[in-house]
Amino acid sequence: MSDDAAPLSVDTAVYKTLLESTQAIPWRIDWETMCFSYIGPQIERLLGWSQGSWIGIDDWVERMHPEDRERVVGFCVAQSKAGVDHEADYRALKADGSYVWIRDVVHVVRKDDGEVEALIGFMFDISERKKNEEKLLRLQRELEELSYQDGLTGVANRRLLDSILESEWASARRSGQPLSFIMLDIDCFKQYNDHYGHLAGDDCLRRVAHSLGSSIVRPRDLLARFGGEEFALVLPETDLEAACQVAERCRAALSDEAIPHRASDVSHLVTVSMGVATAYPAEGGIPASLIEQADRRLYRAKQSGRDRIVAE
After folding, report:
1. Helix, strand, or coil here: 243?
2. Mean pLDDT to the nearest integer, 65-71
3. Pick the catalytic residue: 87, 133, 229, 257?
4. Which of 97, 209, 292, 312 is deepest in the core (most CB within 10 A)?
């Protein structure tokens, strides 16, 4: 061995020691043979597979979660062929049959003529990071759900109502189908609060929401709290006659709930007044016009004595 080669051997040994003392797992694949020319011994600690069992790229592919395989392999091969450094996250199979999240950071080594010579990189265990990310995403989903939910009654809030109404209006405009809207108001609710107290009033709102919710049988129908003691229902692909049947079903459900209301001018039980309106968005108009029409009919129902449905 020449004098010049000796320092290089020492440096190589030092680099190897440094690489194998880290948590990251170094590796190298020869592009022509698609075989591992090196993989760090840390791989056995992390995944349980022996260092010598990593022969070729097939070992890497087969030890990847089936749901991640096509996406990751396709991406990495395409990037490598293009000579682009890249990274990929995937679930790696452990020798005991479980999975661990890995991040592979890959550098493409080129020859002097520009052809790919090898891939070198590091595998990192990112399981803890993934757990935290999933927890954060779950919390974000929960917060999003809460942002569309009325805090008192648990039904949809006005924000979601407006969003769904816009969406169903656009759908009905394309399909030519009718869209119906029911606006309802608890009769003499101020008197209820004055007589029973605001905590009882809150419980009354919850019970009304529950009974109305039990009247909805189709997945796309939406019950929402419009505000105060007012609720609304969005009924896609529903004509006026069918919407009135839903309104009658709501009245019957509330009657079965039999919530006492001794201070009511209408009944000894809690009742509601309803305005029902139907539109054909394909003929023009805007969602707000449907709400306004239902609101006007609700007003007439209350002016006419309450505890009734007005649909024209």
Report:
1. helix
2. 96
3. 229
4. 209
